Amino acid sequence: MWWSSSSWRNPAAVAGVLAAAAGVSALPQTGNSNSNNGDACNNSPSLCQKKYNEVTYLGAHNSYALRDDSTDDSLSGNQYFNATVALDAGLRLLQAQTHQGNATLELCHSSCDLLDAGPLEDWLARINVWMDDNPNEVVTVIVANEGDAPAAEFDRALQASGIAQKAYAAASGSPPGEWPTLREMIDDGKRFVLFATKVDFSPDTPAVLPEFDFVFETPFEVMTLGGFNCTVDRPSRLSASASDALRQNYLSLVNHFKYAGFAGIQLPDVDTIETVNSAEVGKEGSLGTHLEQCRREWDAVPNFVLVDFWDEADPLAAVDSMNQVEEAAGRDESAVTTGGGRNAAGRVGAGEKMAFGALVAFFSAAVVLV
Ligand SMILES: *[C@@H]1O[C@H](CO)[C@@H](O)[C@H](O)[C@H]1NC(C)=O
Ligand SMILES: *[C@@H]1O[C@H](CO)[C@@H](O)[C@H](O)[C@H]1NC(C)=O
Ligand SMILES: *[C@@H]1O[C@H](CO)[C@@H](O)[C@H](O)[C@H]1NC(C)=O
To answer: From which residue to which does any coiled coil extend (predicted)?
Structure first.
């Protein structure tokens, strides 16, 4: 059942649906299996001695925006499973988008009337629970700061969630001369890294890293399988110079999700997801091909990789290949294989056609749901 157009417009109704669904979620609480991986860091002993910027991390694009029972399979959702399930499975990067709520930063997608997954600090608190259970893991969160909130507000969310104690603090507003190794970050207990767009670095809030002073990324509004490339899209001041950026110890981010247009609205393209998320190298539009192209062009492995619907096809295999990890330790995908949020509505079908109607009614102008 899809939200009626009135419930799209009514955040209270939406919040009610979310709250009700949270109470009856079918997702099993997966047993924690990562805490006793011996000497593994981020699922592999071979990664411990690598520097933070020498590792490739698979990330969930709009990781809080779910297309599952909790949102009535919202078309605004980019993922079938939530961030805890993603971390259990082996993802170590979570991307999110915040908008100004009344008193908090809210995890909304394009508009809080469309999809509101609650306050950032509550979501960070749930990630913190996972990190407490998994002490050998380094996790990165990247936030698109749509509400133009100042760094102090992100810092407040870090403190309120309890994750601040684990937060990596930058020494200055640009990449360090040398990033620490994963082992050093784990031993220091500073193994949570937060980047946000549109904030300024301040020594008062050193755990809030301005994304584009530390990270460059490839284009993100890709509409065709042939459209993925390794050109520096943001920050614009680094245009066409990935190698300069890498020399300055910038981290790289590969956006690898494809959109399709329906009635003037761009939505995650589920019809091509098997190809887009494929680890196969040589296939047009696959993650494997894109990562290999960037690695060749940059002469360095890509660091951050964002995909939609990470449980589809085998994006972790593509990332393992970059990291030269052959046998990852302690990944738990039981919540995925036993089926949680995913259902047939994840495919474009009759239900979606109705939902498109609701989306078209919601927006007065064409919009890209990125
Ligand atoms: C994901 O869902 C499970 C089950 O409802 C819940 O325990 C967990 O806190 C959720 N994680 C996040 C990050 O929302
Ligand atoms: C802000 O408060 C109003 C009135 O209490 C509420 O309806 C709305 O959902 C809130 N918005 C957000 C983004 O929290
Ligand atoms: C990469 O893609 C972007 C966006 O489509 C495009 O503007 C740019 O020209 C492409 N770069 C190359 C080298 O083709």
So the answer is: none
